[in-house]
């Protein structure tokens, strides 16, 4: 290939295009393999400095490699180097203790050498001698020490020496050049800050005298020569020991605009740092609280443990599992359902967004599904209410507990209306509900309870209002009371005891829609409570006539809705499992409701 | 060390005569016994130990790492001694314009003293880049970088093949190389120019005053190993009096006294290079360390590596470099095995500035791992890389071995992809030099040089072809056999968790 020398014999080669694909072939496929000019390796630029390229060992290796490339058999050559040997008399494991634990993840680390080596000063043999003398109670000059200090540790000694060295280097950076006098102890003491330990401050005086004796013009710990002044003088250019010079600062043009920019940047930086600092502070606070919490938990545990011991020694046997309860913190009692439900709308509001951000997230929580179903039901109820209102527009609903109460009743009306004779017509309870609650068990009200469960707002309000459970404080409901059966004074509501346990059977006449009359008998109600209002039969003149327990209008209506909603098509997009959870969830809820109500009643 | 100027190409014949121990002086070249044979050696320094003279000698044509102190008994005074040439009136004004023929080259000796001012020789990196370009591009500053040229050529895409940047006249290339050897015209002419070049990047120096000094440390102890330094390193001058200098394996701090070192070890808490681990496999880990953030550690590392790297310069600070440190894990911590430094932004497209395997880990295949790692980084960056020049002898061999291995592997792989059926000329696989370089993150120049050096680039039937020579294939097969026995050590790119660090303009400027 080297064609220049054999130019006369050989035609000049075509230039090699590095972008053009070349055939890759084996040697055996070469057609003119016998060409003599192929039998030498062209001189290739090595990249080694010329003076060194001629070196004996390198040339030996290169020529061996060249020979090998041409197919000759050569033994491996190498360049001799001074060998490293095992250090003798070194207790390696003592010098380098086996303390490294490999973390599972890749190490991330940013501390510097200075952060990691403690005091920069390290004691030499002289220092060891001096320190032992010092700890024997002798001063630098062999005199007895007058101070009452006891023992100086190696670390303290090194701290003091580091402090002296660093302070003098900082305050007299050019001491090596201008022969500045050694700093006095007083000058040194001015530089003491909070980083100097109390121990070190106590020992400063005795060690200072030793330091002065040892102090030369160079720092005591041998250090490399770094150019201190960024001068352009060539004075130290030839000094082989001066190294790591700064590269000269690149000048940027100074303009007013640039200055303003810089100020802005600094301000921004300041703000960002401040917020970062605050964040860190909050984290510290949190962690401290966590720590306190842990400590307290531990204390509690210890106390409980002690109690247990006492119990064991005194042979006090508690109930089964009692001791375990003592030692382990009980899980907090799960919050009442009602409150959770009150919070649901919030989570529901968040959901669509979450779904949008993670469309492939198909891990729905069961509780979320329940919530969805419930919301669907509530919404339907509200919708139907609205619809009802529309139907009844311009119509006055004179039925008992009208679903859509006349507007004027709700707004601003007195809470307790005087007995209006015309309204006292026979009220018509909704046809869909048995107006005579079955007697006997608590569970009688199952259905109603379930409905109530589906109207969480009511429940919450009841609890909030601190009114007995059975009395919904809603004005629109109150207006529909049959006043004859009630004390009119609102103040009395709280104290009003309903004659719940009246065993007398009763009946009433009721006008239904379309003018139908119903005479309804009320069976004995042994236990339980008034779910909503009391109805006095108009037929009866007796004041203490039988009480009718009618559910609140909401409850009735919502129950209807619930019934209707069962007929709703399966697999509605927003809440496919809705029909299922509603009944499924029902049983535990009334029980709970009972508890709450019982408490209130 | 008296001033001397034998660095100058000089026609003058040195004076030769017999000498005695008393008349020997610095600069003399005498025959000295080395490993049982006599070699010509130059006296670089003298001292008297216990009344006997000792000479620090450099053996001609041996690397400086073999320079040593010898007793007078090894100097052969029965043969004539070459006396140093008298100093020229003003060596600075001399131009090395004479072409160096073979003999001149041979007599040319590196300057050996601090005040010698031989014009540094051609920067090999420059000459190679220049040679791969048309003559008109020589002066253009933006064209100085071969990597840039390659990228530029790529951007053009479908340029007609011919006189564009990607064509290389191989013969011309060789001629250029020869001329470059003779005429160091593009190299920095003066010390000032060289320093300016160092200031704006690079860590290798051609400057003779930088690289020709008597070793200053006797021995160093690092970890559980002891070794002799190879070259001068600007450790504190106090240490030249110490028998042994102790270097902490983790923070790389240096101590002249055993007591101090032991005290330091009680306090030092570092257990690995102070940076982020970016690679970990069963054998080794790599840490990335920013010279600007870890100034002390990186300075310590540079001081240490200067003991073993002749051309490394510590003239300027470590800020513009990143250091990639390879470590081996034990219960003690991560032991530094080797490292390479890399400019944060290399104008010349270098992906390695300095590269070193510590002597106690040499000849174990770690160098290849370091080199491979440097190319894996370049692959992630999407750049072509090449080591900064000049290479040392060991560096050259290390790189050549790596290049040969990956190129032969790539070619064999391409052959296999082609179905292994290459009996007919039409069916043989095709691959351009540039694609080969791209796939290996190697510069076109390096690929070409490797192929040429292995005699794998031939010209047949008026076409260039790549020949997988039997020798190269056999060598690779032998290596694979060996790997099967010993276990293959290679970098697994999947375990490299790394993004090319981005530096703001402020972080890149060379101030503090």
UniProtKB/TrEMBL annotation, chain A:
Give the Pro residues compositional bias ranges: 574-590
Q: Does the keyword Transcription regulation apply?
A: yes
> Which Pfam families does the record associate with it?
EPL1
Q: Where is the composition biased (Low complexity)?
A: 591-601
Q: Could you name the domain of life of the organism this protein comes from?
A: Eukaryota
Q: Which GO terms describe its biological process?
A: regulation of transcription by RNA polymerase II
The entry's keywords: Nucleus, Transcription, Transcription regulation
Disordered: annotated segments: 323-363, 400-453, 530-549, 567-601
What are the residue boundaries of the Enhancer of polycomb-like N-terminal domain, all occurrences included? Answer: 12-166
Biological classification of the source: Eukaryota, Fungi, Dikarya, Ascomycota, Pezizomycotina
Q: Which InterPro entries match?
A: Enhancer_polycomb, Enhancer_polycomb-like_N
Q: Which family does it belong to?
A: Belongs to the enhancer of polycomb family.
- Function as written in the Swiss-Prot or TrEMBL entry: Component of the NuA4 histone acetyltransferase complex which is involved in transcriptional activation of selected genes principally by acetylation of nucleosomal histone H4 and H2A. The NuA4 complex is also involved in DNA repair. Involved in gene silencing by neighboring heterochromatin, blockage of the silencing spreading along the chromosome, and required for cell cycle progression through G2/M.
Q: What is this protein called?
A: Enhancer of polycomb-like protein
**Where does it localize?**
Nucleus
- Per the UniProt entry, the signal peptide is none
Q: Which GO terms describe its cellular component?
A: NuA4 histone acetyltransferase complex; nucleus
TrEMBL record, chain B:
What are the boundaries of the region Disordered? 80-148
Q: Which reaction does it catalyse?
A: 2-hydroxyisobutanoyl-CoA + L-lysyl-[protein] = N(6)-(2-hydroxyisobutanoyl)-L-lysyl-[protein] + CoA + H(+); L-lysyl-[histone] + acetyl-CoA = N(6)-acetyl-L-lysyl-[histone] + CoA + H(+); L-lysyl-[protein] + acetyl-CoA = N(6)-acetyl-L-lysyl-[protein] + CoA + H(+); (2E)-butenoyl-CoA + L-lysyl-[protein] = N(6)-(2E)-butenoyl-L-lysyl-[protein] + CoA + H(+)
* Alphabetically ordered keywords of this record: Acetylation, Activator, Chromatin regulator, DNA damage, DNA repair, Nucleus, Transcription, Transcription regulation, Transferase
Q: Which SUPFAM superfamilies match?
A: Acyl-CoA N-acyltransferases (Nat), Chromo domain-like
Q: Which GO terms describe its cellular component?
A: chromatin; nucleus
Coiled coil start-end: none
Gene Ontology molecular-function annotations: chromatin binding; histone acetyltransferase activity; transcription coregulator activity
Among the Pfam families in the record, one is MOZ_SAS
Where is the protein situated, by its record's location annotation? Nucleus
Q: What Enzyme Commission number(s) does the record list for this chain? A: 2.3.1.48
Do you know which SMART domains this protein is assigned to?
Answer: CHROMO (SM00298)
Span of domain MYST-type HAT: 212-500
Enzyme active site: 388 (proton donor/acceptor)
Q: What domain of life does the UniProt record list for this protein's source?
A: Eukaryota
Where does this protein have compositionally biased stretches of type Polar residues? 96-106
Would you identify the family this protein belongs to, as annotated? Belongs to the MYST (SAS/MOZ) family.
Q: Which PANTHER family match?
A: HISTONE ACETYLTRANSFERASE, HISTONE ACETYLTRANSFERASE ESA1
What this protein is reported to do is described as: Catalytic component of the NuA4 histone acetyltransferase (HAT) complex which is involved in epigenetic transcriptional activation of selected genes principally by acetylation of nucleosomal histones H4, H3, H2B, H2A and H2A variant H2A.Z. Acetylates histone H4 to form H4K5ac, H4K8ac, H4K12ac and H4K16ac, histone H3 to form H3K14ac, and histone H2A to form H2AK4ac and H2AK7ac. The NuA4 complex is involved in the DNA damage response and is required for chromosome segregation. The NuA4 complex plays a direct role in repair of DNA double-strand breaks (DSBs) through homologous recombination.
Q: How does it assemble?
A: Component of the NuA4 histone acetyltransferase complex.
Name by which UniProt lists this protein = Histone acetyltransferase ESA1
Q: Which organism is it from?
A: Acrodontium crateriforme
**Organism ancestry:** Eukaryota, Fungi, Dikarya, Ascomycota, Pezizomycotina
